[in-house]
Amino acid sequence: MAALNSSSRMTIAVAALVLLVVAAPSPASAAISCGQVGSALAPCIPYGTGRSSALPSSCCTGVKSLNSAASTSADRQQACRCLKNLAGTVKSVNMGLVAGIPGKCGVSVPFPISMSTDCNKL
């Protein structure tokens, strides 16, 4: 999981964006794992840290996949928690770049992207 460690903050922000897109609550248990979240968003790391000026199509594929997979409130909350747990390991995340990823991938997010997202409200 070395790639996840180097991408935590960016990954958290992207996942939080994607997870908040579908905000209808559901009492179901989470089916998404931290491994799935990290794997889906790992291709976004170079862009989100400014190491690449181009957003890879595999990043958008991951964002869209995670958005589809996070169909319940429990899923969104779990994915958010996974990402927040990883947040402290990335020091070079550019939140401005991260905030723009969903839009660049054609995923609509009706809220501001923030590291202070309350996962329990997703």
TrEMBL record:
Any one Pfam family match given in the protein's UniProt record, by short name: Tryp_alpha_amyl
Biological process terms in GO annotation: lipid transport
CDD domains in alphabetical order: nsLTP1
Signal peptide boundaries: 1-30
MF terms (GO), sorted A to Z: lipid binding
Presence of the UniProt keyword Disulfide bond in the record: yes
SUPFAM superfamilies listed in its UniProt record: Bifunctional inhibitor/lipid-transfer protein/seed storage 2S albumin
Bifunctional inhibitor/plant lipid transfer protein/seed storage helical domain boundaries: 34-119
Keywords for this protein: Disulfide bond, Lipid-binding, Signal, Transport
Function: Plant non-specific lipid-transfer proteins transfer phospholipids as well as galactolipids across membranes. May play a role in wax or cutin deposition in the cell walls of expanding epidermal cells and certain secretory tissues.
Family membership noted in the UniProt record: Belongs to the plant LTP family.
UniProt protein name: Non-specific lipid-transfer protein
Organism: Paspalum notatum var. saurae
Lineage, uppermost ranks: Eukaryota, Viridiplantae, Streptophyta, Embryophyta, Tracheophyta
